Amino acid sequence: LRVALLNIDEPGALADFLAGVVNMDLAQRQEVLEALDIRDRVRRVQQRVSAQLEILQIQQKLQKDVSSQFTDMQRRAYLREQIKVIQKELGEGEEEVGVQVEQLRKRMEEAGTPKEVLVQAERELKRLSYVPPASAEFSVIVSYIETLSELPWNTLSKDNLDLHRAQRILDRDHYGLEKVKRRLIEYLAVRKLNPTGRGPILCFLGPPGVGKTSLGQSIADALGRGFARMSLGGMRDEAEIRGHRRTYIGSMPGRLIQELRRLGTRNPVLMLDEVDKIGADFRGDPASALLEVLDPAQNQAFVDHYLDVPFDLSQVLFITTANIMDTVPPALRDRMEVLEIPGYTDHEKLAIARQYLVKRQLRENGLKASQCEWTAPALKRVVEDYTRESGVRELERQVASVCRAVAAQVARGERRRVRVSPEIVQEILGPPRYIRETRLTTDRPGVVTALAYTPVGGEILHIEAARYPGKGGITLTGQMGDVMEESVEAAFSLVRSRAAELGIGSEVFRDTDIHVHVPSGAVPKDGPSAGIAMFTALASLFMDRPVRASVAMTGEVTLRGLVLPIGGLKEKSLAAVRAGIRQVVIPKLNEKDLADIPKNIKDRLR
């Protein structure tokens, strides 16, 4: 059009051309067409062109002003309106939100939630009606309501209170552990007489590998309850127990509430494993958070940070496990009923290997009982020469090694069946790994057999004392700890204070140096329970009277000459019998512990 316009030279033709192009109604165009005077025609067209320009300039200015005032918030509001329209077209609008709110409300009512929880849920559901579905807050509220509705507020599994059946299950899964089994049967008996009673907090204390964790599953089977295990080893974040507040992105309930939600019952068996290995850092102390959980008087109103409403944990049977109680805070220890599970005797290990371990390893290695037959001497050889532990994990590993070797021979077709003897055990496992300390063969002054307790069972120790000319000094060797060194000094002071009664000249201490040694020199040793053996060794040395090699002794000694009680009497008695000792001297105050020593061991000791 612009090119055509530039090629017009006549004013009349120009007026006619513009009248046809510019925005004019039909009557105005007719007027221009009827104006025969060229000047008049051109003026009319010019007026119309000028009016159009003015209108366009005003529109441009208005557009600028409006766009400057159209803020980011208005843009979002406009877009939200657009989304609402789109959702309405798709059938996902406010009506859909209303349906979802009603469904969540119905689920809450069906879950049988307490009144105060329903009030909290109703408050959140009202908020849900105002929050746009596209908002992040919408999904947070929905997740929260779903969690509340899925918790077992009133769902309890029915306990199987058949005591004989429970005893059979416990005996089937675990050998020995009579004290623990008796306590669990007592708990069942109490539940039978008082179904509404609170669940106890039991703590199984014992060395690794004695079956503390697997006992939890057996208890759940015996009771007919759900079972969940939580490992607390290395846990540092308090939120693992109490949950995260909902102000945080990705917040969730604590592990306890999650496990109860998964199990769908309010009275399961919950095992808190390795309670002695909880850590603490800037995120809080999980052990302190457990104080409320593991208190039957308080845990009926446990408040998880995520839920923010009380949940009743009083029907849960909590079982904790620990290797040592020293690292467990005193307040937490006070809330638990500690059941000690001692290490197994050699006799018990043989029975466990025969009844459980061999069968399991034959099954895992694809062998039949007829293809790999274990003899009692072979198992005895594995227990005595290839393991040194309180539990049976290493024993099972050694049995597995032998079974694998037999499986290889059977698979290659070299042999169809193998009868495992001590010789075959040594051929597969190599030379004996552990040589046990045995009793002394000769009596001599200054050498005494003491009994020691280690985390893997009892051991015998030979306390050796030697004297030579000097200036009254004392040398201690054998990796002794501070307490043991002090025990030697206390025993030496007692010998000097009783010198007259023992018939020792007082001047001999002034001119003599003493050396006390405890083999094995590379193994750290500590504790006061060798005090009586130290005293006897020093008295024997200065009196020049030998101590009988067939006698072992244990007990803490004081400067007044009193003998105080010691721990681990069962393990120490076993060590004495293994070493061939038949007479043991123990503190009078430990007489109460003789009931814990197995009868077959007690019959072989005086």
Brief rundown of the structure:
By secondary structure, the chain is an alpha/beta fold.
Give me the secondary-structure topology.
Elements: H1 2-6, H2 11-21, H3 26-34, H4 38-69, H5 72-90, H6 94-110, H7 115-130, H8 136-150, H9 163-173, H10 178-193, E1 201-205, H11 212-223, E2 227-231, H12 239-242, H13 255-263, E3 269-273, H14 286-293, E4 302-303, E5 310-311, E6 317-322, H15 330-334, E7 337-340, H16 346-364, E8 372-374, H17 376-385, H18 393-412, E9 418-420, H19 422-429, E10 447-454, E11 457-469, E12 474-477, H20 482-497, H21 499-502, H22 507-510, E13 512-517, H23 531-543, E14 551-553, E15 556-557, E16 563-564, H24 569-578, E17 583-585, H25 599-602
Structural features, described:
This protein is an alpha/beta fold and 606 residues long. Helices cover 49% and strands 13% of the residues. The protein is built from 25 helices and 17 strands. A hairpin with a 6-residue loop joins β4 (302-303) and β5 (310-311). α6 (94-110) runs antiparallel to α7 (115-130) and α6 packs parallel to α8. The N and C termini lie far apart (128 Å).
The largest sheet, given as strand count, sense and whether it forms a barrel, is:
6 strands, mixed
User: What radius of gyration results from the CA coordinates?
Assistant: 44 Å
* Helix percent band: 40-55%
Number of contiguous helices: 25
The share of residues in extended strands comes to: 5-15%
Secondary-structure-based class equals alpha/beta
Determine the N-to-C terminus distance. Answer: 128 Å
Mean pLDDT, as a whole number?
84
Q: Order of strands in the sheet with the most strands? A: 12-13-11-10-14-17
Identify the overall geometry: elongated
Number of strands: 17
Uncertain runs: none
